[in-house]
Amino acid sequence: MAKKTGTRTASSGAAGGSKKAKEPKAAGTKQGERSLRVRMYRHGLGDCLLITLPKSDGKPFYIMIDCGIVVGSPNPSIMEDVVQSIIADTNGFVDILVVTHEHYDHVSGFAIAHDLFAEKPTPGKLAAGQVWFAWTEDPSDALGNRLREERNKRKQKLAALVSSPRMQGASPAMVDHIDNVLGFFGMAKGKEKAEGKAKVAGTGPAMTFVGGLAPVRYCRPTDKPITLPEVEGVRIYVLGPPPDEQSLKKTDSKTEVYHLANMGAAHSFFMTLDDSEQDKVERYQPFEPEARYALKDMEKPGDGSGSSPDRHLRFFADYYFGPTRGANKDQSWRRIDGTFMDAAAEFALQLDSATNNTSLVLALELVGSGKVLLFVGDAQVGNWLSWQNVQWQLDANTTVTASDLLRRTVFYKVGHHGSHNATAKAKGLELMQSGDLVAFIPVNHEMAVKKGWGKMPLPKLVEELNARTQGRLVQADQDYQPPDTPRGKAFAAALTKGGGKNNELFYEWTMPMS
Amino acid sequence: MPSPPGADSDKPPFPPALYAAGKVRRRPPSRRRLQIFAVDPGASNRLDTAFINKTTIDVPWEGEATDANRSAGSVREEGEATPADALGPGPVGEYIEVVDVDPASGMAYPPINLNDPYLLAENGLAPSEGNPQFHQQMVYAVTMRTIEAFESALGRRALWASKRTERDEVNPSTGKKEKKYQTEYVQRLRVYPHALRQANAYYSPDKIALLFGYFPEMRSEADDSALGGMVFTCLSHDIVAHETTHALLDGLHRRYQEASNVDVLAFHEAFADIVAMFQHFTFPELLRYEIARTRGDLREGKFMADLAQQFGAALNRSKALRSAIGVNPETTNYASTTEPHERGSILVAAVFSAFLMIYQRRTEDLLRIATGGSGVLNPGALHPDLVERFAREANRSAAHVLEICIRALDYCPPVDITFADYLRALITADADLVGVDKYGYRVAFLEAFQARGIYPEDVRTLSVESLRWSQPRAQLQGLCSYLRDPGAFLAAKNWRDPSVKFDWSRKSDRRKAYESGRLNAAMLHEWLAEHLTPEMAREFGLNLQKKGDPSTEGFRFSEKTGQPLFEVHSLRPAYRVAPDADIKTEIIAVITQRRRVTVDPNGKADPDNTDDSEEAFWFRGGCTLIIDPDNDDDPIRYAVSKGVMSSRRLARQRAFLGQSQGLSLRSLYFGGDSGTEHNEPFALLHIGH
Fold first, then answer.
1. Candidates A175, A339, A449, partner chain B, best to mutate (most B CBs within 10 A)
2. How close is the nearest chain A Cα to the Cα of B236, in Å?
3. Is pLDDT of B569 > 80?
4. Average pLDDT for residues A445-460, to the nearest whole number?
5. Mean pLDDT lowest for which of A240-254, A364-378, B149-163?
6. Which residues of B160-219 form beta strands (DSSP E)?
7. Interface pTM (ipTM) of the complex?
8. C-alpha to C-alpha distance for A265 and A245, rounded to whole angstroms
9. For the structural domain made of A2-145+185-257+350-512, what CATH number should be given?
10. What are the CA-CA distances from residue B654 to residues A58, B334, B601 (Å)?
């Protein structure tokens, strides 16, 4: 069977990959013992995972989750190496291709390595049997459509804002920060940017492209647990995204979510931009024309006539524009010219969070052992908490809840590159009580720091995960150092490196099915 | 006795001068009446509340700014002394300046002149959402009302936080760069009624200003045809009062901005809401309406809870802070709730519950009289007289609770406050002023707080007596005579002006009050530096061991004494009139100290390096001293201290800092090195609330 790998194109990507990973026949370590593998690519700040399950006939069944790297990475074309590596090891075909959510660090690979994908199995290219999206991407879902529409509009407005001269009133650091948040949509300096060999820019086209690769399934938490006809003893539960707007917009552990009022605020805020729809600007003015002056007209000194406009001019000179006479009479420290722009940060955060919350969350259950592998995308608090509201009726006597699944979780793909708000505490990590827990963090701290995100991953969370996994925590940007315990060594033995020139492209963990 | 008319007919009965027209000097009115929205504009659009939504409140009179008291036409001098009774267009008065610029809309709105005769005749403009000048009037009225509540409860003029400027200066002796702080008096709080296009309003400690936002209601961002009416946060009484309270509290306790434990920010929020809420309960129309509607029965605590919750509900903002009201206290969890608004809501609920108990006690007899002794009301509507009497009692209870809550601020520690400290302050403040607790106010507070699990850990028994702060073991002998006559001591110290005296007078000029407050503090510092022994200092939560003592690690030292630096933050008088007409004079001294410590318990911090803010922080301690200036033997009645050397408190603060590290998405994307961009602690707390 090893010959089959010869069908791949001459790719340097997978050269020197681990033998085990390349062996497509049996996904097991020993004859007769079925096992599965979870692979995390280490290409940079972004997610790309490959799960290998054993089919009933002994052949491998592949699930690929996401394929992306954050915008502005030093070497975006590394995504081609990643895809080449997958082509090599899967023989150019993954059974299920899962895309968790529309963020650049999860989908940019589809744009950058665009030419390496194909609709039908083609030598040297990657094809998929099915594509799985979250229900929020379903074009026949009214709420999903509205949310996407809102997301798009918000995105465009923020992009316009970043490049707008109006933003000069705000601090430059703030503009950079917002721009970095927009980077999640593949934007830089307010423009969508095509990186590497990408022919298309931005996340939207990448999503459309993936959707065209294979028949699409839109997954909902209300779906019955999904069984795979080819693979015995596996059930896949859809935990999120939550079916209601409230949860989707809940982004932080605060009691309340940003609500309708805030939407109006955002809308009227963006109406302050120069290129906003001029015919509508007037509708967002709080007062009628008779009740107001244009602020810029008030900067002039009065004419001293004592008329009513003159008195008003003097008032604003005295109490706002100043400076007043005499030493140290500067009142510029109290002015608020650019202060309202601070809101842009909030609106950018809301956009980012709302998108993260549309993450498709999958729990893969091994029926025999009851063990669960949890893939959360970048789900944030609202998504996590909503799992508590769903349960699945397996048969008359068996009901499965999200808490059950969390309790039995032995593998956790850490959400949002290890940032604090994508791993719930009480209703999340603290429920993962299995002594066998293993966690992978797909992150590149150096890149995150460049983006100004020094707390990615959050040290506190890493510490907590390390304790819960007893050291079986693999961080993509670091060489794994096993703890000096028998179990630590056993885990290290089941963890292999592979891909790239020096086996540096991925980590893969093999675990028994039973 | 004037002679009977006609007895001496060639003399007029009174001296003619008294009749001379125009010679009788008329005093200006003491109050100005202004119309406001009682709830918020939304309530005007519901039939059941439309008729009570407009109310007229009165605020202290500030007169017309005339040529005589303000140099007309000239550019105003910042801080220029304006007579206390001048109110210019804006309104700009003694305490606040309303400046209605709206950079988000690119507009400015002309300032209202409340001394316009038409407006004087009609109690100001009638409530209207579409007239920005009414907005200016309303923020002025509500802000002034809140300031007045503070002044009367604290017994002195309210001062805003001073402006702090920071600059790097090279210390000539060490050659190192040092941060120098300069403070400057800020006369007026600036108020921007239309500052933001956001569902937010906040107090900015940097600008010493209140910023209010506005926004249109909207169903969907994708479809802007569903645009609703404009909502103005400056038209909600509770929001304006809430933000003003933040500003007043900041002027009093600047360190309460620093989240050194989980209660501090929650306290800031809860206190602001308590003031807003109880001030609201002093509006008689609303109370009468609600009492008639619910037949005065407050035993369930439900109606007032509803009333409290509906305020500001349109903005969905104060709801979180009041969410614990009317909830069974056993279901609120003080121990494990950490989010500031949720935690604050427990304090709000505790105070509210105390208020209900007080109201109930004050109306028990009324209820019995009205029901022939049965205490059971007949079905149907209440008699209007009874409604009136119930409302009066509710009004009075609310005013008292508000006063006690504000007065307690003088009895709070200068740093690191907890809810339990506040309970002790409430009880001490009230016990000091009202000897006999006729209506059981203090027991009501104790019971309400205890039911929610808020009580100090370090008192042996839980009773009103044991919760009162106690007299310190150390006394500062000679302090009183120094306070009376500092001259001799200061002369020996080569003080600039040894004839200077402590100035306790109640100034009408706030700038003088500010300046004499600073001078007083400097004088006390001079004396304490010599008279405070290390042993006494420990009693007051300070550390005055000599340099080199192992305990002094992390302190900065005074070059003169070789002891760790300490600061007399303020020294201020408080005059209070008790219900029995007794006038109390007290002096409140706030003394603080800080030392640099690392987040890591085993680390070592350098007090001269403040750039290491990731690894180290200032750990603060100190005390509030309540001084009785007439008691020569035991001048210090209470020392409310937070030990700067307390290892328990330090461990708690370290743990807290560890937990709160990177708690928000904002701090992930926007925090870190550029944290200085966001100096608006209250802005972030308020978003979405």
1. A339
2. 15
3. yes
4. 86
5. A240-254
6. 163-170, 177-184, 189-196, 201-204, 209-218
7. 0.83
8. 18
9. 3.60.15.10
10. 55, 20, 8
